[in-house]
Amino acid sequence: MMHIRQKTDGVYIVVNTTGFEAELSEHPSVINHPDIFEVVDQDLPTVFEYLNYQPEDTDPLNQGD
Amino acid sequence: MAYFPSSWVTAGGEFAPSSPLDDFAIIDSRFQRGGLQSGILDTTERDLITTDRRTFGMLVALPDGTTYQLQDATGDGVDFNVSNDANWVLYTGGGSGMFVPGSDAGSTKLLVGSGALDGGFDNIAVIGNNTATADQQFNIEGYDILGTNFYVNQGLNCGIGSSSGGFFANGSLATAQISAGGQNILQINNGTGVQEYAFGNYHAAGVNPTGLWFDCDAGLFSMSQDEYIFMWHDTATRWTIIGDADGKSGNGAQIYVDDTNDVVGTRGYKLDLNTGDTTIEVWNGATLLIYNDVGSRYLTMGENNGGFGNNTFHEFNNGNYQLVRGGNAWFWTDEDLGNPSSGLAGMGDRYGNLNQTTFEVDDATTYYRFRQAGQGFDLQCSGDNMRITSQMGAVYADMPITMPADATDMLRGDPLTGQWNWSAVRTNLIIPAEKIIGNGSNTAGTGGLIDFKDEAEGTYTGTITWAGTTAPSGTTAHRYRWQRFGNKVSFWVYLGYSVAGSAVSSVAIDVPPGAPVPANPTGLSTASVIQYVTAGRLGTSQTVTTAATTAQVRRNAGNTASEIVVGATAGGYRYAWLQGEYYV
Q1: Which residues contact B319 (CB under 8 A, 6 or more apart)?
Q2: How far apart are CA B231 and CA B212, in angstroms?
Q3: Which of B40, B61, B98, B195 has its CA at a distance of 20 to 30 angstroms from the CA of residue B306?
Q4: Is A19 on the interface with B (CB under 8 A)?
Q5: Burial class (CB within 10 angstroms; exposed 0-12, middle 13-18, buried 19+) of B110
Q6: pTM listed for this prediction
Q7: Which residues of A touch B510 (CB under 8 A)?
């Protein structure tokens, strides 16, 4: 399964790409932080967490969407 | 010559045969007037004696040895008419008594008539002369016996042939030796003014005399005021049997103690059962009736002063009974108790005497009551179990039930054992899982089961969604705990990471594992709508958290479930605390 993961140790973090219809390689997270995010094609692990990627200039009191 | 009628023949000297050698009779007594007349065959010829030949005081001797005297009304006659045959009276010899030898085997003596057999101070009759001569009988019809003693060695029949015959003894009556052994059967004495009936030492021929027997088959033994039965059972095994002792039906047999006229209240039926094993049995169809209408009566078993055997009283009827037991006393009945309210009330303070091997009240159709007015009544059991069983309905206790000294215990029904037990409330009370007992309504009631669960702290495994440039990462420590009390759920979730995220502004999680699903309040069920306001913090360390946050339970963006969210000014957070309440 194609998905974008945050390239960090420990807990497996998957970028929530729901509603993003372009190629995953064109997702803002990969475009802006290719050193942190990568597109992978593999099965998701049993335990993982989601990240709703937001650029660093996002409104500070975002409600978590 | 005016002394005699002119028709009389007079004589100037004695009558005599012409020669001393003549053997003919000078005169036949049947043709004389009065005197002693013999040669009369029977009472029919006696009654044919003409009036001219009769005078009061004359005697007629019959060939069978019976002698009659013609008496007027000054004696035992009925009038002063010498022609009246009713004035013939059996001549018994007056104050000298009457002796009937009857020494021949098979002889039968018969006295028939009326009036009195009065022997004065002498014997009236002796048959067999106190010797064991077989088959002798003395039959009396119609006489009252007034003599001092009356002895019959073999058989005595009174009133035979009469429709209403009976035997009455105002003095003493001794009948002996109705069978081999020469032992007394019946004695009736009145020497002290109190009638006493003594039964003893009788045994039938061919029966081993191992005990005393009073055997009443289908008979009636009636007693009234001031009369007593004493049965002394002093040795070995004794039986008082009414009814079917020898296989006969006991129907109609009774010992009937009627004390209705007693105003003193001290009469009784007493068995002195000093030693041995004694049984009173009322057999098939027979009845032991004890009427206690006034005063206090007692049925006493055993002996009040020691020497007990194993005694049994079987069958019960009306009356106030007091059981004074001895040894292993058994009281039981498999019959109708009649009126148990009065039948057992008399136990009174003697209830302790039931504290023996067995006490049974068993009947399929009758209920029983044990009570004692004004005092306590204890049912005690020294063994392992004391059981009150009702096969048909409930067992009621219409009274307060006193608790044991340990006031923390309560009487409860144990659903596991099906028994009532005194047990500690807090340790042994069985409540269904995840329930408490309470009353959440606005009215008083017995309460009911309410949901309750205290979920211990554990590792949070629900879905976590961070919002930020990068999510916290590295080693995680996710914990949770929740508790449900009724319809409210309190939760606590902690998320910890070894690496902080960047520009993190919020985190959304599922309700803790196992926690009930939040209820959707009316009008708050669309996507992303806030349902319950909670609390939360995001932190850069475990000691520094954000100052301003928002936290709530809300519907998720897809409106598929409720989620818990906490948001803050974007920062490099790696800790989150989410805490609050919601309803289900």
Answers
A1: B290, B291, B292, B297, B299, B342, B343, B346
A2: 9
A3: B195
A4: no
A5: middle
A6: 0.41
A7: none
